């Protein structure tokens, strides 16, 4: 039987030299050149049957081709054999290196005939065209949601599953996929792998670098068909379009308020939170509860701010200073002047 994770098919007998699945025409290690045609035909038959005999021992990924499994294994080993000869970038796939090199040349051969948007990648143009056609080919099989992009559908599907199997060991943050956890970890490590090739700017997220690059080029490829408004970001165009449609997709779950932007909803929700917080603090005047405890003496307080003021007595800190005479105090109230 094959060793899993080394390019060998599982549950299939092996040829002595290449780990090919049996059940198709095989050649031995010393076969003649002419016999290769038989191997190719056999592989075609395997593809037509939909079989994926090569399995990764790390994550269970399966592939039809041994070469495809070899490429996949680089995601586990971290191997990046394709090097850029103009900077220190390296990639696991030759295709990704090709995309990267376009950043050095600045070449953008693919252009949208509708609005003049240009890109270095053909598939970027294909995705962009959906903003004009309204095509949403990626359908949810559990509701009527559809999306122009597969990654957007993948995010949507997590709402149905509710699973977040990836957890941060630093703070307990949980994510639906490994890539989101990797992005989150940069908030702890400070890593900023996405570098601007025109200045010393760097970013933790590729989307942030893309936004930054628009400042250098001045390019605004996204245009509103209603009023001619142009922007460098697709998300800005989506927000702008709501001024025409009146759509307010962000709903408050505590009242009937709705907003065109998530930031506006977040501000509104704070009003509900503040009311609850203020009431909770007030109720302690009746219950006598003092949840904030000093770890150096038996002092306790109703509010955290009161505990913070108390702690300065232990540390000797006097953070409040008068700008006129330099007087310092540990209590803000002592700095406020009183008038007779």
UniProtKB/TrEMBL annotation:
Q: Which SMART domains match?
A: ZnF_C2H2
Any keyword Cell wall biogenesis/degradation? no
InterPro entries found in the cross-reference section: Znf_C2H2_sf, Znf_C2H2_type
The transmembrane residues are: none
Q: Domain (C2H2-type): give its ranges.
A: 54-81, 82-109, 110-137, 138-165, 166-193, 194-221, 222-249, 250-291, 292-319
Record keywords, A-Z: Metal-binding, Repeat, Zinc, Zinc-finger
The record's GO molecular-function terms, alphabetically, read: DNA-binding transcription factor activity, RNA polymerase II-specific; RNA polymerase II transcription regulatory region sequence-specific DNA binding; zinc ion binding
PROSITE patterns given for it?
Answer: ZINC_FINGER_C2H2_2
Pfam families, per the entry: zf-C2H2 (PF00096)
Q: What is this protein called?
A: Zinc finger protein 525-like
The taxonomic lineage of its organism, from the top, reads: Eukaryota, Metazoa, Chordata, Cephalochordata, Leptocardii
């Amino acid at each position: 039987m094959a060793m899993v994770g080394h390019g060998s098919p599982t549950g299939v007998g092996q040829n002595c030299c290449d780990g090919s699945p049996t059940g198709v025409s095989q050649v031995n290690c010393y076969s003649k050149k002419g016999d290769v045609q038989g191997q190719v035909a056999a592989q075609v038959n395997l593809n037509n049957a939909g079989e994926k005999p090569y399995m990764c021992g790390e994550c269970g990924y399966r592939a039809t081709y041994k070469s495809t499994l070899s490429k996949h294994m680089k995601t586990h080993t971290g191997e990046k054999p394709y090097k850029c000869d103009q900077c220190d970038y390296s990639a696991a796939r030759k295709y990704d290196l090709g995309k990267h090199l376009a950043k050095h040349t600045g070449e953008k051969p693919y252009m949208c005939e509708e609005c003049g948007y240009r890109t270095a990648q053909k598939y970027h143009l294909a995705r962009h065209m959906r903003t004009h056609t309204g095509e949403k080919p990626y359908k949810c099989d559990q509701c009527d949601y559809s999306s122009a992009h597969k990654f957007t559908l993948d995010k949507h599907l997590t709402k149905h599953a509710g699973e977040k199997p990836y957890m941060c060991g630093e703070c307990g943050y949980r994510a639906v996929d490994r890539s989101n956890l990797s992005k989150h970890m940069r908030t702890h490590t400070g890593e900023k792998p996405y570098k601007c090739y025109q200045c010393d700017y760097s970013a933790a997220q590729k989307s942030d670098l893309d936004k930054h690059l628009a400042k250098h080029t001045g390019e605004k490829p996204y245009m509103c068909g209603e009023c001619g408004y142009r922007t460098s970001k697709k998300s800005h165009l989506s927000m702008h379009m709501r001024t025409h449609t009146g759509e307010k997709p962000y709903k408050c779950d505590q009242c009937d308020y709705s907003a065109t932007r998530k930031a506006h909803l977040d501000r509104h929700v704070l009003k509900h939170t503040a009311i609850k917080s203020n009431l909770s603090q007030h109720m302690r005047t009746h219950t006598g509860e003092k949840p904030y405890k000093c770890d150096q003496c038996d002092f306790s307080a109703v509010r955290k701010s009161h505990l913070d003021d108390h702690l300065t007595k232990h540390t000797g800190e006097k953070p409040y200073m008068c700008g006129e005479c330099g007087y310092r105090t540990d209590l803000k109230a002592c700095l406020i002047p009183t008038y007779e």
